[in-house]
Design brief:
Helices cover 65% and strands 4% of the residues. The protein is mainly alpha-helical and 480 residues long. The protein has helices at 2-21, 32-45, 62-74, 78-103, 107-122, 133-148, 153-167, 174-190, 195-222, 226-240, 246-259, 261-272, 279-299, 311-318, 332-335, 338-360, 366-377, 392-396, 409-412, 414-420, 424-433, 451-460, and strands at 384-385, 438-442, 461-467, 471-476. It has two domains: 2-243, no CATH class; 366-479.
């Protein structure tokens, strides 16, 4: 029966994730970060380019390795890649379920926590629907949690290993690993684990955690590209942060709460519920959330997708709302009974899917239209430059980028230029020396940071066609 339950919920979680995300499979762009990873993974795995030398981005290597491995299965199909992202979301929910069952064995909590995570991340339009780093390192964290509470030294090593995989996808994953291991120490301490034995187990976990990071260091050292890797890995993270924007982060946090108010109702209901049975769990989750929030705050950024990292601990605690002894009484029990819940959830899913259909299938896909135009008019040897527009066009046209900096903001935003030590004028001179036939521009380029791009366009380019009077395709005149 237990094995049947495992299989049933695995299928249920995966199918739910696919159903909630299905209309998001088809747009060429949801989030430009995803586009960067797709293009760079193709260049590294299919075209033999070297990460941080031929193509570069201020992200750890894990995300590009993972995207490249998935592309070995999906090819360059964006729809199939998003299907794989849905599979990762469903599998994350399943490992949340497995962790909860292994830890306390409360089935309702385990099932609820898994489904809450799926709805949490799959109903956040734009940030939750694209394939971003947070989707994948949370997946590895959920696996790590599952192995962390299992018995045996091998399981402890595997727990550390999977947390380590998450770390080389995004370094802020360290702020998940630290509280989770701290909880393990306290948890074992309460069980009168002797100190030498406990320290030995921590060494095992730490060895697993450091192995992926040590391996990529060794790879870049042996390949002769360690200096480029070292710069991105050690220098950029230390200099990418800026002064704390406390009000900005709190404002984003408030928006995050409003957007997911039903889930946070479950979360805070359990948080204020006075129950000795789950008090250690609440303390553990609060410490975990505090560590993650500190990592967000310390970066000084207010990017909304950073808050995805909070979804795993919030889902774990919110799931206890469905534990029978903790369910609401009085008037609230009529609101949260099974019949009402099914009606409200069904209505929500219908509204959500209709909204997704309108947003993802009914609106013009200008990036694809742009790529189609270039494919029709450019020769196989013609270079293109996507300017300040979506870099996914390199993938859709099967073209190479004329610059290693695939994500266009690296060349134009002051903070990124400073961290990456880029001379905008020099880099644009290098790009236009290669004589790209087409340059794609979004908007009128009135901002100061586009001054050098404007100068190159004015010297030898004219608008050949436009979409929605906003996206302009410039053609080099001397090529005519």
């Amino acid at each position: 029966m237990i094995k049947q339950n495992k299989s049933f919920f695995l299928v249920a979680f995966v199918l739910t994730a696919i159903a909630l995300r299905i209309f998001s499979f088809f747009p060429s762009v949801i989030d430009h970060d995803e586009s960067t990873y797709l293009v760079m993974a193709r260049d590294i795995f299919e075209r033999g380019k070297t990460l941080y030398v031929d193509v570069t981005d201020p992200k750890p290597p894990g995300i590009f390795i993972l995207f490249g491995l998935i592309q070995k299965i999906t090819g360059t199909s964006i729809a199939f890649f998003r299907l794989f992202t849905a599979l990762f979301v469903g599998l994350t929910a399943w490992f949340i379920y497995m962790f909860c069952m292994q830890w306390q064995g409360i089935k309702k909590v385990a099932v609820a926590s898994g489904f809450i995570y799926i709805f949490f991340i799959s109903t956040w339009k734009f940030f939750g629907m694209s394939s971003n780093t947070e989707h994948f390192f949370i997946f590895f964290n959920a696996i790590g949690l599952f192995f962390l509470v299992k018995r045996g030294q091998l399981n402890l090593f595997l727990a550390g290993l999977f947390f380590g995989f998450g770390f080389i996808i995004k370094y802020s994953n360290l702020f998940d690993f630290i509280p989770l291991v701290a909880f393990f120490v306290i948890y074992k301490g309460y069980q009168s684990e002797k100190l030498p034995k406990l320290l030995f187990k921590l060494v095992i976990i730490g060895s697993g955690f450091i192995l992926p990071f040590a391996s990529v260091n060794l790879y870049f050292y042996l390949s002769g590209n360690f200096e480029s890797f070292k710069y991105i890995t050690y220098y950029v993270p230390l200099n990418y942060t800026q002064s704390m924007n406390v009000l900005g982060v709190l404002d984003r946090l408030f928006d995050f709460h409003v957007l997911f108010l039903p889930i946070f109702f479950f979360f805070y209901y359990i948080l204020v519920k006075k129950t000795a049975e789950i008090k250690p769990i609440k303390v553990f989750i609060l410490v975990w959330i505090a560590c993650v929030f500190w990592s967000i705050l310390s970066l000084g950024n207010t990017f909304p997708h950073y808050f995805i990292q909070l979804m795993l601990p919030v889902s774990l605690l919110a799931g206890y709302f469905f534990m029978k002894p903790l369910q609401p009484k009085g008037c609230l029990k009529y609101v949260f009974n099974r019949k009402t819940g099914i009606i409200l959830l069904s209505a929500f899913i219908i509204v959500k899917l209709v909204s997704d259909y309108n947003d993802y299938l009914q609106k013009p896909d200008y990036a694809r239209l742009t790529a189609d135009y270039i494919n029709e008019h450019a020769g196989s040897e013609d270079l293109i430059y996507t300017g300040n527009y979506h870099q996914i066009i390199y993938l859709l046209t099967e073209k190479d980028s004329p610059t290693p900096y695939i994500h266009w903001t690296i060349l134009y935003y002051d903070r990124l230029k400073r961290v990456m030590q880029i001379d905008n004028k020099l880099e644009l001179d290098k790009i236009f020396t290669q004589n790209p036939k087409y340059v794609v521009v979004d908007g009128k380029l009135k901002e100061e940071w586009f001054e050098n791009l404007r100068a190159h366009l004015n010297s030898d380019y004219q608008i050949e066609t436009s979409f929605d009077d906003r996206i302009h395709i410039y053609c080099r005149q001397s090529a005519q």
